[in-house]
Amino acid sequence: MTQENLYPHLNENARVLIQKSDEQRIFAIRQGSWLGYGDAKRILARMEELLAYPRITRMPNMLLVAPSFNGKTSILERFMELHQPDLDPTGEVTVCPVLMVDAPGRPDITDFYTRILDKLMTPYKPTASASEKYSQIKLLFRQMDVRMLIIDEIHNLIAGSTNKQREFRNTLKSIGNETKVVIVAAGTEDAYNAFNTDPQMSSRFTPEELPVWKANNEFGGLLATLELRTPLKLPSNLKDPAVMLSIFNRSEGTLGDACDLVKELAVDAIRKKTEHITLDSINKLRWVPPSKRKQYKRLNSS
Q1: Cα separation of 107 and 149, whole Å?
Q2: Are 205 and 62 in contact (CB under 8 A)?
Q3: 3-class secondary-structure state, position 205
Q4: Are strands 98-102 and 205-209 parallel, antiparallel or unpaired?
Q5: Cα separation of 75 and 47, whole Å?
Q6: What structural domains does the chain harbor?
Q7: What is the model's pLDDT at position 37?
Q8: Which member of 87, 127, 156, 261 has the lowest number of beta carbons within 10 Å of its beta carbon?
Q9: Quick one: which of 65, 71, 69 has its CA closest to 36?
């Protein structure tokens, strides 16, 4: 019999992995892969539109908002993978259409500029002032044809004083106005508060949201896709209503937790030689749901 007949519940890549050792399969499972679900494709398509936008006086921007661990950063990293810098050694200068940085832990402009320069892998004076770093950034953006600046963890903006927040927002406006780059800011729900206190910011950034998942056919389809990619020798039928609901309840509808839960269930199935995920294994797996993790840490540290 062919591999396809032996393992009809797996896709081609997973059927290749099924021949590997247990540890190799576990490594591949934990490594994961890109999931192109509906909302992710919608956000990526919108970012492609923004990247292709002509340079105009007031560039359009995006504010991507999602609960923690719900796929936001994965989408941004996927976009970065699709738009790698041109590192042609014969070229006079590297072309970097998309640049991604994490916002500082507090609204510190100098730290923010330093993060941009570090990502551009360019030397700078450690003692340089914020204005000197900004001038260098503007020059590099022109030379390297930076067209989009992605800023993750933008909710950190609210960690500072009102004046610091205002100063940081003004910095973002200046970057957009003077370099004509599209800015994609991403963060948790607190990002709304960081932007909505300034009418100019809220009008410049169109919000896009990644909501928490619901226990519906879409979530079942997501689990079916995960099963196709997970190299277990026996089918698990993760989209079965009872199985799907159990995974949903334990992950609390968060994409990252749902994926991690399925990964750990698959690893558990390999190590116990059962080779499939069952309702019983879902209920018995040692797993702390997101809402109880802070409380769990407190209990275990007391």
Answers
A1: 17
A2: yes
A3: strand
A4: unpaired
A5: 10
A6: 3-31+213-289 (no CATH), 38-209 (3.40.50.300)
A7: 92
A8: 127
A9: 71
The CA distances from residue 172 to 11, 55, 71, 297, in Å, are 44, 16, 24, 37
User: Do 233 and 274 contact (CB within 8 A), yes or no?
Assistant: no
Rounded Cα distance between 185 and 191, Å, is: 9
DSSP assignment, residue 273? T
Structure tokens at 125: 């004076």
Contact 204, 176 (CB under 8 A): yes
Rounded distance, CA 185 to CA 199, Å?
A: 16
CB 194 within 8 A of CB 187: yes
The rounded radius of gyration (Å) of the Cα atoms in the chain is 23
pLDDT grade for 296, boundaries at 50, 70 and 90: low
| For helices 109-119 and 130-143, angle between their N-to-C axes, nearest 10 degrees | 30
Mean pLDDT estimate for the chain: 91
Contact predicate 259/222, CB 8 Å: no
**Integer Cα distance of 264 and 267 in angstroms:** 5
pLDDT at position 302 over 70: no
Beta bridge partners of 183: 149
DSSP letter for 86, please. B
3-class DSSP state for residue 107? Answer: coil
- The predicted structure's pLDDT at residue 50: 97
Angle, alpha carbons 190-215-218 (nearest 5°): 90
pLDDT in tens, 37-52: 999 999 999 999 999 9
Which two three-digit tokens encode residue 82?
């699709």
